[in-house]
Amino acid sequence: MKFIIDPKTGRPSVTLSAFVVGFVVCTAKLLLSGIKTDIITFEQFSGVDYSAALAALGAIYVMRKRDSIKKDKDGSNA
Q: Which of 6, 37, 50, 62 would be 13's cystine partner, CB 3.0–4.6 Å?
């Protein structure tokens, strides 16, 4: 599986990839919210739901970056 390359480290980043995919999925869900077709019905997805999902994704990404920076300063991630 290929992941997006982190521009700061130059290595593949699982959390950056998850954040980008989550952002795209949440945005698509917000755009398609409430649309009803013969085959599928998209449930309501409000701006509050959107912001809660992005806040959760952002928190995971930020916490990962903080831990990674701390490990690099300690030298334990060599």
A: 6
Check whether 20 has a pLDDT greater than 90.
yes
32 is a domain residue:
no
- As for how many domains the chain has, the answer is 1
Dig out the tokens for 42 from the structure. 């998209």
Quote the domain boundaries for residue 50: 43-70
Q: Are 40 and 49 in contact (CB under 8 A)?
A: no
Residues in Cβ contact with 22 at an 8 Å cutoff, skipping those fewer than 6 apart = 53, 54, 57
**Burial of residue 50 (number of CB atoms within 10 Å: 0-12, 13-18, 19+):** middle
DSSP annotation of 76 reads T
Q: Is the CB of residue 53 less than 8 Å from the CB of residue 26?
A: yes
